[in-house]
Automatic annotation (TrEMBL):
This is 4-diphosphocytidyl-2-C-methyl-D-erythritol kinase. It is an enzyme of class 2 (transferase). SUPFAM superfamilies: GHMP Kinase, C-terminal domain, Ribosomal protein S5 domain 2-like. The keyword Transferase applies. The gene is ispE. The active site is at residues 11, 137.
Length: 285
């Protein structure tokens, strides 16, 4: 196998709704997902024993608990191939534990790249099915672009893309436990939900402002105090800087804003970066 390289794009939730708890312990979700240009680079080569993961972030798992390694193992198992001697190198730019599906996107990149390099000829649909076993966001990340995701996150319907725009992403320092946020949401009656149908209509119409106005994430209502305060402050800063809309992505804590012009996005990014080191300016894909 020659060395292979694949790009792993970050995802944003334009909407995120939790419809209920399922008998399998997961939650029924309804989300509009969008890829952005902020990305990791995933390289796979032959080397070492077993399967190993290296990255520019020393705290990431280096063994099979890393989603990238888990994806390689699942794919090789499905294809009846040996996964011994695979080395995965992650050049991480997407913030970790941030609600941007960084780990899931790395896993999806491994599925696409290995599928190609090993000549397995699985379709994207088949790769998404294998990805389901790795994590709920992996099937979406196999495809990327703009999608409606339902079920655990694996029931995907393509949507017209969000009109091209600038995106400022800001991850406050706090970490949030995804299972803990799902438990919190189980304990409340949600009164505010995203208008998913309205979002779909705005996308159909190519209406960026309409889509930005309809962005909403139900997890914003159940955030523990310090995170909730930081998220609200970042949203305010983005809107005051001229964002068409701002929203938290996934289970957070990253907040993003959509901008029509580069100068406003640049100003927002500069202002937020003074307080939050992990602030990025990117564009939609
Ligand atoms: O599938 P994944 O491993 O990414 O999910 C991480 C955690 O998020 C799960 O253990 C579960 O607590 C929660 N989750 C959920 N319902 C979903 C997706 C994730 O409850 N649809």
């Amino acid at each position: 196998m020659a060395e292979m390289r694949e790009t792993a794009w970050a995802k944003l939730n334009l909407t995120l709704d939790v419809l209920g708890k399922r008998p399998d312990g997961y939650h029924e979700l309804c989300m509009v997902m969008q890829s952005v240009a902020l990305s990791d680079t995933v390289t796979i080569r032959q080397g070492g024993a077993g399967i190993s993961v290296r990255s520019n972030l020393e705290f990431l798992p280096t063994g099979p608990t890393n989603l990238a390694a888990s994806a390689a193992i699942r794919l090789c198992e499905a294809a009846g191939r040996d996964w011994n001697g695979l080395e995965i190198v992650l050049d991480k730019k997407i913030p970790v534990c941030a609600g941007l599906a960084g780990g899931s996107s790395d896993a999806a990149a491994v599925l696409r790249g290995l599928n190609r390099e090993l000549g397995l000829n699985y379709s994207l649909q088949e790769l998404a099915r294998i990805g389901e076993q790795v994590g709920s966001d992996v099937p979406y990340c196999v495809y990327g672009s703009t999608m409606l995701a339902r079920g655990r996150g694996e029931v995907l319907t393509p949507l017209p893309p969000l009109p091209w725009c600038y995106v400022v992403l800001c991850k406050p320092r706090y970490s949030i436990s995804t299972p803990e946020l799902f438990r919190r949401i189980d304990g409340v009656r949600l009164t505010c939900r995203p208008d998913t149908a309205g979002m779909e209509e705005a996308l159909q119409a190519g209406d960026l402002a309409g889509a930005a106005r309809r962005m909403y994430n139900v997890f914003e209502d159940v955030l523990p105090r310090p995170v909730g305060t930081a998220v609200a402050e970042i949203k305010r800063t983005l809107i005051e800087a001229g964002a068409l809309g701002a929203c938290m992505s996934g289970t957070g804590p990253t907040v993003f804003g959509l901008f029509e012009t580069l100068d406003r996005a640049w100003d927002a990014c500069t202002t937020l970066r003074k307080v939050h080191k992990e602030t990025f300016l990117t564009v939609t894909l």
